[in-house]
TrEMBL record:
<feature type="transmembrane region" description="Helical">
    <location>
        <begin position="32"/>
        <end position="53"/>
    </location>
</feature>
<keyword id="KW-0812">Transmembrane</keyword>
<keyword id="KW-0472">Membrane</keyword>
<dbReference type="InterPro" id="IPR051791">
    <property type="entry name" value="Pra-immunoreactive"/>
</dbReference>
<keyword id="KW-1003">Cell membrane</keyword>
<feature type="transmembrane region" description="Helical">
    <location>
        <begin position="135"/>
        <end position="152"/>
    </location>
</feature>
<dbReference type="InterPro" id="IPR010432">
    <property type="entry name" value="RDD"/>
</dbReference>
<protein>
    <submittedName>
        <fullName>Uncharacterized membrane protein YckC, RDD family</fullName>
    </submittedName>
</protein>
<dbReference type="GO" id="GO:0005886">
    <property type="term" value="C:plasma membrane"/>
</dbReference>
<feature type="domain" description="RDD">
    <location>
        <begin position="23"/>
        <end position="168"/>
    </location>
</feature>
<feature type="transmembrane region" description="Helical">
    <location>
        <begin position="65"/>
        <end position="83"/>
    </location>
</feature>
<dbReference type="Pfam" id="PF06271">
    <property type="entry name" value="RDD"/>
</dbReference>
<keyword id="KW-1133">Transmembrane helix</keyword>
Length: 179
């Protein structure tokens, strides 16, 4: 008959609520800012590729085509990495994106999350478009909306951003496995 260790020697199971704990708003926004910095490299390479392939000589030529191209490139970037669980910025800040049950995202769900993540930007862009506001005023409105959208996560039961709630995804704290 096998000898079992005493119950206090057995590892206690981690409750599911602890595993799926949302990172703090400060950590999520720091990750968001770091992601924005990393996206400069993606924009540079994609812009160079677009300019070379389209033989664009002036930055204002083909501006809308470049914006559409970047939208697609961003979609590929985020869908690819979110389906794997993390972007580089998310790895740095120990954040992972999963579905509501804690499973990895499918490509389709990652794409839905990407489309819904534009709720960070589309409302203020639509609000300022008809008024031809100067760049500074448009920036203030954009940053104000980003702050409001981020703070609205406080009203979600699991402290998630609302585009995550709509997409059926969630950001969770994720400690890397020590080797």
């Amino acid at each position: 008959m096998p000898v079992l260790p005493p119950p206090e020697a057995l590892p206690s199971p981690v409750p599911a609520s602890t595993k799926l704990q949302a990172p703090s708003l400060v950590r999520r926004m720091a990750c968001w800012m770091y992601e924005g910095i990393l996206m400069f490299g993606v924009v540079f390479i994609a812009g160079y590729l677009f300019g070379t392939l389209s033989q664009t000589r002036n930055a204002l030529d083909n501006r809308h085509a470049l914006q559409a191209f970047l939208f697609v490139v961003f979609g590929i970037y985020f869908t690819w990495f979110w389906a794997k669980g993390q972007t580089l910025a998310m790895k740095t800040w120990n954040i992972r994106v999963v579905d509501r049950g804690g499973r990895p995202l499918t490509q389709a769900r990652a794409l839905l999350r990407y489309v819904l993540s534009w709720l960070w930007f589309l409302p203020p862009l639509a609000a300022v478009a008809p008024f031809s506001l100067p760049g500074g005023e448009a920036t203030v409105i954009m940053l104000g909306w980003v702050a409001v959208w981020a703070l609205l996560s406080r009203f979600h039961p699991q402290q998630q951003f609302w585009h995550d709630a709509l997409a059926g995804t969630r950001l969770v704290h994720h400690e890397p496995v020590k080797k």
